[in-house]
Amino acid sequence: MNSPRRLRRSRTTELDTTGVLLDLPTGKRLDLREVFIDAPDRPVEVEVGIGKGGFLLARARQRPGINLLGIEYARAYATYAADRARRAELSNVRVLCTEAAQLFTTCLDDCCLQRVHIYFPDPWPKRKHHHRRLIQPAFIQQVQRVLKLGGQLLIVTDYQEYFGQIQRVMNSTAGFLAIKFPQSTDRGDLLVETNFERKYAQEGRIFYRIAFIRYV
Asked: So which residues are the catalytic ones?
């Protein structure tokens, strides 16, 4: 979810997001059973910051028995990923163009998610911008609220200093237990196969991963 490159205008002019790209309801909670009306009883996972949708679509193909909700603040990327999901006929994918903090704080019900994926969140490297980082105590408390008992939070970053902050925030939040990071891909050299991970792997960057389960 680092700041992405801009999509070329030609890539976004004739995209069809019908049935995939959704708007947030005004003044009420997001009813996930309505969002995934064709299979409302499946577990729901959320990916925060989907970019072009690389991980989201791969996960949907690998796990057709779950529903996946992708969150992306950049409209161009949300539209692009939603079009990819529609063309791939992935009926278990929906995309929302919104801020993650707003969604988790005001729109999701308690205990509604099975897993939350946060891969390569913007590290906001300048100290004066650290308050803009997504992983803050208030946000993680909301993640805990919306996760089911036994639900998981998975985070990957390439920024070591930010990883230290993430560890401190998680260790100070009651109700989470650290677990082994699950392998999400068939490729042993990649953790989650996002576009950023492929790019950064080619550059030889080190990845820092962490996973937790909600136990209370």
From this structure: 122
